[in-house]
Amino acid sequence: MPSSTAKSPVAKLPLSEDEPFLGHKACAGCGGSLAVRLVLKVLGERTFVVLPAGCMSAVGFIYPQLAFGCNAIISTFAGTASMMSGVAAAARALGLRDYHVVGFAGDGGTADIGLQALSGAIDRGDHFIYVCYDNEAYMNTGVQKSGLTPLGARTTTSPAGRVLAGARSHKKQIFEIVAAHGIDYAATATVAHPYDLIRKVEKARDTAGTSFLHILAPCPTGWGVETSETLDVARAAVDTGLWILAEFEAGRFRINKTPRRFKPVSDYLGQQKRFAHLGSADAFAIEKERDTRWKRLQRLCGTAASG
Amino acid sequence: MTGDPAAQPKFLSGNEAVAWGARLARPHVIAAYPITPQTTVIERLADWVAEGSLASEFLHVESEHSALSACMGASALGARTFTATSSQGLLYMAECLTYASGGRFPIVMMNANRALALPWNIYGDQQDSLALVSSGWIQLYIEDAQEALDLTLQAFAIAEHPEVLTPVMLNLDGFVLTHTYEPVAVPSQEAVDAFLAPFETPNKMSLTHPVNMGFTAGPAHYTEFKVQQHRAMKNALKVAADVGRDFARHFGRDHGGAVVPYLCEDAEVVLVTLGSVAGTVREVVDELRSRGQAVGMLKLRILRPFPERHLLQAIGRCKSVGVLEKDVSFGYQGAVFSDVAAALSGQGSKPMLRNFVAGLGGRDISRDDVRAMFAMLQSACDQTGESRLHFVGVEESTHA
After folding, report:
1. Residues in chain A with pLDDT < 70?
2. What is the pTM of this model?
3. Residues B205, A48: C-beta atoms closer than 8 Å
4. Which residues of B306-323 are buried (b: 16+ CB within 10 A; e: fewer)?
5. Do B35 and B181 fall within a single domain?
6. Domain with B276 in it: what CATH number?
7. Which CATH number fits domain A15-301: 3.10.105.10, 3.30.750.24, 3.40.50.970, 3.40.50.2300?
8. Mind telling me how many Å the CA of B111 is from chain A's nearest CA?
9. Which residues in chain B touch residue A56, judged by CB atoms under 8 angstroms apart?
10. Tell me, what's the pLDDT at B1?
């Protein structure tokens, strides 16, 4: 793998300076490509990468400009997990040693079209790491609504209309859906919390069965933020309580970071043009859903106050 | 002919014969999803994996789409892979068919030919595989259980050949072949190992030489990849013939080439067909021959790549050619007929042509039906356009 010459802030992290994902054509400020880069820096070059149709295959995989320094292959859109199952089965059958199998699918590729294959693979306990880089819409095709688009967000298929103002449903709780399978390891993370992310990738790497990482990966293009604000907005998602850093391991949930008091959701929503049209009713509904989700997850952790 | 003295005689259905073929090929990975009438193939394989007599990774996947997707992932590491499906399942994995062929993954898949919904129907016809005839898979059509076993073994050798590297679909008529029991010689593992070498390919992901596979190619490069794919598919005709001869040397059985002519040399009238109905047609040919009629049959064993030259050599000088098939391209004619007619149109003497669409949704094709087809082919009048198409056994008008 080529090494980066310029010292970036990432170089201060406890990571290899090899660049496993180099020369891709992602937009400036892309959260998804940052997630891929960080994960692969942890896993190293003895890794088989599977990517479905989506931003990362679109920007990293254009013949003859191929951006992955390790083995990598495009799957069908719905087939990230099933192709990884095949890779993992073949690696076992061929007696390979010391390798990792990882998939990088977007939110639509995971929670919508790829959910069936993901569910089957978790059920089988296939040995791989499934990474969902969540930019909360079908960004590659031009910002269409997915099952992980949050309430109120404007996309090109949930426009801010007079009758319907943005997406009309909350995000699917994909982390909990995955955990409900009894998966070996699952965690949420963001690109703005790299130490937390690295630790979770290492845990997934050292897990014998199936792992799932749900990484919030802001998309400046789709969210309507400056390209320099990717990390700020991901941090704000955690500080406002809208994104919960959590893990599911050995059948137990754990919340990694509980803000003493949530920053107002308007801090987060107000940063992004996709929420510019939002009325107070939606802002209230978003806040209410946040509180419900925290209570539910705290109950699952066994840390909730009684009553 | 050296033969295989250690072969075991068994009484097997078409499906079980395929399962034996797959077992003897020692696939690294089997991924499959159940669908009637394919199920007994994967049940046998699962039995053997469970009892330990077959050392394959068996993936219980959640759909046919996942079955083929998993096979692609395994094949990308250089593993030998097998799957089986039918009908709606084949269509459900349709997206993966073009991925597998474009990715040049030499997967072997058995398809139990079955009607497509709606109306819902679990019985045999060939609408499913013919709907996907352009998906880039080599398509073989099987007549009996012994051929099913033997061709499963040959399919791996053809698919994995470095000049081919293209997936193979083995087509067996649903129920009529998949569930009919026949005596089958099951080769010994030693004989199969001597015939079928382990799969080796440079076209794979490896820890020592990492590659990026299955990439995007824009207008500047896409066509070149497709031309390579087309040429590799064309190579399969020669490779299949070589593999067939090699198989005959090892096992003493030769199932013929891409086309199998039956009494075609002096035939004025030939019925072209494919799959298990060839047995019925052959009987009628014998009967008509015994009455002095110059009739013959041409069985298509390989439909893709299309064996145009072989077909012209065998029947190019006939006066009248019919095509009997279990599918229709709605609004035109049978898909096989279109291929045969196109091949015959490119030569000097043009035979009269008729298309017989029969056996849809499992309807029986009787000897009387076949006799009637030959009678129509022997009638002097030429037919053109839509009147060439006959839905066999349909009341009112036999013309489309």
Report:
1. 1-11, 303-307
2. 0.95
3. yes
4. bbbebbeebbbbbebbbb
5. yes
6. 3.40.50.920
7. 3.40.50.970
8. 20
9. none
10. 45
